[in-house]
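Q&A log
Question type: sequence-to-structure
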Amino acid sequence: MSALTAHRIHFAFTITYHYLFPQLTMGLGLLLVVLKTLHLRGNEVAGEAARFWSRIFGVTFVMGVVTGIPMEFQLGASWSRFSSATGGVIGHALAMEGVFAFFLESAFIYLMLYGEKRVSPRMHWGATLMVFLGSWLSGYFIIVTNAFMHHPVGHAVDPDGSVRLVSIGAFLTNPWALVEYAHTMVGSCITASFVMAAVGAFYTLQRRHPPHAALFLRVGVTGGLLFALLAAAPTGDLQMRAVVEHQPATFAAMEGHFHTEDGAALVLVGQPNEHTLTLDNPIAVPHFLSLMTHQRWHARVRGLTEFDRSTWPDNVPLLYYGYHLMVGLGTIFVAVMGAAALLLWRRRLSRTRAALWVLMLAAPLPFVANTAGWMTTELGRQPWLVYGLMRTADGVSPKVSSGNALFTLLGYMGLYVILSMAFFFVVTRILAEGPSVEPTREPEPEHA
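Response status: OK
Response body:
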C-alpha cells in the first residue's frame, strides 16, 4: 500500500468517527433551546426533558472534543505539504473556530449543565442559547475551511506555490460555504430529531416516563419532518447546483452520467461500469436530471467522457453509491417522519406500536446518511486537495511511510474502541435513569 493511500484511509477513519458526535450535538443544541423555551413558558416536563438531554449533550460534546483535537495534529503529521502550502488561508478559520466558537461553547456548557439552580431561568435559557450558537459558529468555521478546498476564493498563489489570504471577507462568505453549511446543519438537526424521537418511542413502548416520552415524540417528529424536507429543498438543491456549476465532472460521477445528453434521465437505481462507460441495469426517470439541474426538460447535461480522465474522481463507483445512499435515506426520512407526523396529529402515534418500533430502529440511519453525504463531498473533490490548485498526491507528508500511518491507525482504532465502550456505558446509564428521578412507569391494571 502506498503512503498516500494509507494517509487517506487514516484521515478518513478519524474524521468519520469524529463526526458521529458533532452532528448530534449541533442539532441537539437547537432542540435544547426549544425545550428550554417551553420550560420558560411554564412547561415543567420540558424543563426535566432539557436537563435529561443536556446530560447526553455533555457526554457527546466531550467525545467530539477528544476525537477532534487529534485531527489537527494529523494535518501536520500526515499532510505537511498541504498544511505548509495552505496554512496561511485555512489557518485563519481553524484559529477562529478555536478562539471564538469553541471557547464560547465551552464557557457556557458548564453553566448549562450545572448552573440551573445558581442563576435565574432566563439566564439559564441564555446559557443554553450561547452553547447552541457556539456549536453552530464552530461548525461554520470548519465548513469555511472545507469550502475553500472545494471552491477556493479570496486567495493568491505565490511563486513558490504557497497560498496566501488576500480577502478575509471573500474567504468567510464563500458561496460554496453558505450552501454547504446550510445543508450540513440541517443534516445535524435530522440526526438530533431522529434520536429524540427514538428515545421517546423507546420509553413509550416500555410505558416509562409517559409525559416526557410524549414530548420527545412531539418535538422529534415535528423537527424530523421539517428538517428532512429542508434537506431536500432548498438546501440539497442549492448544494447540487453548486456542484454542477463548479465541479461538473464530480456531478456527472455522482449521477453515473457518462455521456453528454439532451434531456438526461435521472437514475434511481443502477450500477456504474467504468470499463464500458455505461450504467448497468438502470431504472431512470426520463428528462428529470435535465429538469433538476437546468429547470428545462431538454437541457444538455455534460457526461464524464467530456472531461479529461485525469480530472475524474478517482473512485467513481464509491462516489456514486455514497451519493445515492444519502439521497435514498433522505427520501426514507421524509416518508417515516411524514407518516409519524400524521399519526401524531391524529393522536394515534403513542398507540401505534409498529410506528414506534420504526422510529426507534431508525435512529442510526441519519448517522449513516450524514456519513454518506460527507463521503460524497470528499470523494467528489478528488483528485484534488484544493480544487484546481493542489492535487491530493502533492499534499501528503513525504517522510511518513505507509507503515507508520497504518501503525498509528491501528492505535487510533484500539483507542476509539475503548472510547466507544465508555460512551455507550454512560449514555445507556442516562437512558436507564430517564428524565425524572421518580418512578414513572404506568401502573399495571389491578386484578381482583
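Response note: The chain has one domain: 3-260+302-433.
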